[in-house]
Specification:
Blueprint (H helix, E strand, L loop, with lengths): L1 E2 L1 H4 L6 H7 L12 E5 L6 E6 L3 H20 L2 H17 L1 H12 L3 H21 L6 E3 L7 E8 L2 E5 L7 H13 L2 E5 L6 H13 L6 E3 L5 H10 L3 E7 L2 H12 L4 E5 L4 E5 L5 H13 L9 E7 H16 L19 H16 L3 E4 L14 E4 L6 H4 L6 E7 L2 H9 L3 E2 L1 E5 L3 H10 L4 E4 L14 E2 L2 E2 L4 H6 L2 E8 L3
Keywords: Oxidation, Oxidoreductase, Plasmid, Potassium
Family: Belongs to the aldehyde dehydrogenase family.
Organism: Rhizobium jaguaris
Length: about 500
């Protein structure tokens, strides 16, 4: 691993990387190949990392398999203590971790600090949940037998995390696995591997034994994914990313009937009913749409606004969006950082162009900032119809299309008219409407009169083609446990 001054200049304690480099057991062997990590705001080189291949993945899996029996055999309190110590170290080094995150991903430093705190919260939550893995007894049909259920860790977990939340997704996936007694092989996104590496170095300081946590740096995910899916020592795959890749991983896991947890794409509706608090809805839409430059799987992708409040909402919303400052995440008062790469810029430009050609109106924004780079103006578009690409596809950028509606029943139908079912939002004050709409929306998570709802205490996940399983909460722990029925006779 080679770090450049453009990264280390932001760090108070760059020695956490030195510790990672001195611990080969935290990664696989690595060959001669290397790949760069760049700052999306400036294009500067941040680091050069070993580019691992399928053979290296096999080494990491073997290490995880060799460590799993001893790790699972520890008292729950010992696993809890390690997670708790990791949580404390993450908080202690939170400024450096946030700086690494902003450098490699681009999000504003304040958002990065919030993400690091969120990651630490998952570690704390599952440090506590590790002590709460319960079985059950069942009333037997005769007096000479006893029937009971125990829960045991699945085994080796293959985890693949995305670039948009490179710290919190690591914590959200692997902390329940570790609490349950599983060992982990993690492949972070090639665009944002550095914060994961720093977190793993801190995990070693927290006392995790060799082989429990294994890190794979790789510029291409295909070979790593195939190895994780095909190796029989890996009992489960946990993946966050696109629905297309999720389908591919599911097919690759099917030969072994391997367990999977997927958090996939979204197309979140944001509905403002005629009885909504318009000012509150505007602020909620800012949160739900423009956090992380709109690059979140739960980002509001379609804003449906009732005709009676449409003009007021659109005017106030566009006025508020115009105040959002775009720039390098390290600069003061920046609210929106860059998109992750030029492909993201191309997609948002295509969505804007398609909408304008089909009759939409740009209320603010709509343009790339500068002839090169990956900054884009936060954009509001009105007079949007369902035939436009931005109403049917996930944009994954700072683009907010507003769709006028009149019929409350029809808007729920329109909101549900998608293969996705991850997150939805709506604003209303009538309690009867709140309950009916909340139950009618076909989504795994529904924010009611709020634009943010993620919490380590709540189950995160979707319906339909937005995923399988849940992360966070006590339910997230169950996804890493196998249920075993014991029947004891001859008593």
């Amino acid at each position: 691993m080679t770090l450049t001054p453009s990264l280390t200049a932001h760090l108070k304690n760059p020695e956490i990387f030195a510790e990672l480099a001195s611990l080969p057991d935290l990664s696989a062997t690595g060959g001669a190949k290397r790949f760069p990590v760049l700052n999306p705001s400036t294009g500067e080189l941040l680091a050069i990392l070993p580019d691992m291949e399928a053979a290296d993945v096999g080494v990491a899996i073997d290490r995880a398999d060799a460590a799993r029996v001893d790790w699972a055999g520890l008292p729950a309190r010992a696993r809890s203590d390690a997670l708790w110590q990791w949580h404390q170290l993450i908080l202690y080094h939170s400024d450096d971790l946030a700086a690494i995150l902003t450098a490699e991903m681009g999000k504003p430093l304040a958002e990065a600090k919030s993400e690091i705190a969120h990651a630490a919260a998952y570690l704390q939550w599952y440090a506590e949940e590790a002590n709460r893995i319960y079985g059950e007894t069942i009333s037997a049909s005769s007096n000479d037998r006893r029937m009971l259920v125990i829960k045991q860790p699945i085994g080796v977990i293959g985890a693949i995390t995305p670039w948009n939340f490179p710290a919190s997704m690591v914590a959200r996936k692997i902390s329940p696995a570790l609490a349950a007694g599983c060992t982990v092989v993690l492949k972070p996104a090639e665009q944002t591997p550095l914060v994961a590496g720093a977190m793993f170095a801190l995990a070693r300081q927290a006392g995790f034994p060799n082989g429990v946590l294994n890190l794979i740096y790789a510029s291409e995910g295909d070979a790593v994914g195939r190895q994780l899916c095909s190796n029989p020592k890996v009992r489960k795959i946990s993946f966050t990313g696109s629905t297309e890749v999720g389908r591919l991983l599911m097919r690759q896991c099917s030969d072994q009937i391997k367990k999977v947890s997927f958090e996939l794409g979204g197309n979140a509706p944001f509905i403002v009913f005629d009885d909504a608090d318009v000012d509150g809805a505007v602020e909620g839409a800012i949160q739900a749409k423009f956090r992380n430059a709109g690059q979140t799987c739960v980002s509001a992708n379609r804003l449906y606004v009732h005709s009676s409040v449409h003009d007021e909402f659109a005017e106030k919303f566009a006025e508020r969006v115009r105040t959002l400052r775009v720039g390098d995440g390290f600069k003061t008062d920046v609210a929106i950082g860059p998109l992750i790469d030029v492909r993201a810029i191309a997609k948002i430009e295509a969505h804007v162009s398609d909408a304008v050609i089909k009759g939409a109106t740009i209320r603010c924004g709509g343009n790339r900032i500068g002839p090169s780079g990956t900054f884009f103006e936060p954009t509001v578009i009105t007079e949007v119809t369902g035939t436009m690409r931005l109403a049917r596809e996930e944009t994954f950028g700072p683009l907010a299309p507003i769709i006028r509606f009149d019929d409350p029943d029809q808007v729920v139908h329109a909101a549900n008219d998608t293969i996705y079912g991850l997150a939805a939002y709506f604003y209303a004050s009538n309690l009867k409407r709140v309950w009916r709409v909340a139950e009618a929306l076909e989504y795994g998570m529904v924010g009611i009169n709020t634009g943010r709802m993620s919490s380590e205490a709540a189950p995160f996940g979707g319906l339909k083609q937005s995923g399988i399983g849940r992360e966070g909460s006590r339910h997230g722990l169950e996804d890493y446990l196998e249920m075993k029925y014991l029947c004891i006779g001859g008593l």
